[in-house]
């Protein structure tokens, strides 16, 4: 005759709990091992040096970053061509940043002259997302507007309003022009249409 030992319900519950705890520890350990394997695979196959920033890629490969249209002609600039023009630097206070920011880039009037668009009445500045603002042509002459390529010494990513940004010397403008200039400061600039 075979005797079966019966556990009291209380003892069976404790045994089940101990078994459940062991299962949880085993599953947790397997989960950690799986995470470690994924981390090793990611570290092996994804190299930070292979990841490029769009602005840096544009500068290196000669990709057009700005198109200037005037009198039926269009002129294309890559980042190197814009960097080859004389650069201006402004440290300005803006409504977009909590602290003063330093911008660097060529004067708008120098960019227009290099493109053969030295005269007109207005400049339509167009962003990548098709946002457009009409800048009076005389602003390019009177207020030293720049096409900023760098912010605080670094190329601007699209997240930082780059790679190109129309920037006025805001702190030196008359109050009525200063307020107007914020609406004319097109970031992620893609094109200029001179009329």
UniProtKB/TrEMBL annotation:
The keyword Membrane appears for this protein: yes
Record key words, sorted: Membrane, Transmembrane, Transmembrane helix
Coiled-coil regions listed in the entry: none
Keyword Transcription regulation included in the entry's annotation: no
Segments traversing the membrane: 24-46
Database matches in InterPro entries: OxRdtase_Mopterin-bd_dom, OxRdtase_Mopterin-bd_sf
Superkingdom of the organism of origin: Bacteria
Pfam family, one: Oxidored_molyb
Domain (Oxidoreductase molybdopterin-binding) ranges: 95-169
UniProt protein name: Molybdopterin-dependent oxidoreductase
Organism: Castellaniella ginsengisoli
Taxonomic lineage from the root: Bacteria, Pseudomonadati, Pseudomonadota, Betaproteobacteria, Burkholderiales
């Amino acid at each position: 005759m075979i005797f079966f030992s019966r556990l009291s319900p209380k003892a069976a519950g404790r045994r089940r709990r101990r078994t459940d705890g062991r299962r949880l520890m085993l599953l947790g350990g397997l989960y950690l091992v799986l995470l470690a394997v994924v981390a090793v695979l990611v570290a092996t196959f994804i190299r930070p040096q292979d990841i490029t920033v769009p602005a840096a890629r544009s500068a290196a490969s000669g990709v057009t970053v700005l198109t200037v249209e005037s009198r039926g002609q269009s002129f294309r600039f890559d980042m190197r061509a814009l960097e080859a023009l004389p650069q201006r630097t402004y440290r300005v206070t803006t409504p977009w940043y909590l602290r003063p920011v330093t911008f660097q880039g060529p004067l708008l009037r120098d960019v227009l002259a290099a493109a053969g668009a030295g005269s007109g009445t207005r400049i339509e500045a167009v962003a990548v997302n098709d946002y457009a603002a009409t800048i009076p042509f005389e602003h390019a002459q009177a207020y030293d507007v720049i096409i900023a390529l760098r912010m605080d010494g670094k190329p601007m990513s699209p997240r930082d309003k780059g790679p190109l940004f129309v920037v006025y010397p805001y702190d030196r403008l008359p109050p009525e022009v200063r307020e107007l200039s914020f609406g004319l400061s097109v970031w992620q600039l893609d094109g200029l249409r001179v009329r």
